[in-house]
Amino acid sequence: MALEGLLTVPPDASGVVVLVRGGGDHGLSPGDGAVARALVEAGLATLLVELGPVDAAAAAERVVEAIDALTADAAIGDLPPRVARLPVGCLGAGAGASAALRAAGARSQRVAAVIAVGGLDDRPSGEAPPALLVVGDDDPEHVAALAREWFPRHVGLSHRP
Fold first, then answer.
1. Does the model's pTM come out above 0.90?
2. Rounded CA gap, 130 and 94, in Å?
């Protein structure tokens, strides 16, 4: 299983956040970049996963595959071995929010927390990690600030100023 996405791992990473990008846009948007920078500055690795134009079930499966690939690719040496042991969080906006919530539920033993910005609350019934549902606020700087504060607290990591 090959990891598909843009992975940034700071030297002192204490967790990894899968940033789920919905829709057909390609490349890092200014909003994605602001959120990714804030997370990296907080000592978290980021993995940007682009969903493309797929239905909700296929989108969630792509995120599950990305989460699984973090462990599998580290095991075979394609990623640093420590990546396999990092706590995982997911963050999605719009169509990516639903995929992030579904994937987090499907991998609740691996995913410690999720942030969903807009989109539908598609959390599966049963065991699921803590979720922060952000409604009516798509300002990238505010989402970045929320993510920088929320993920370290809920993934069991120490906060960095």
1. no
2. 19
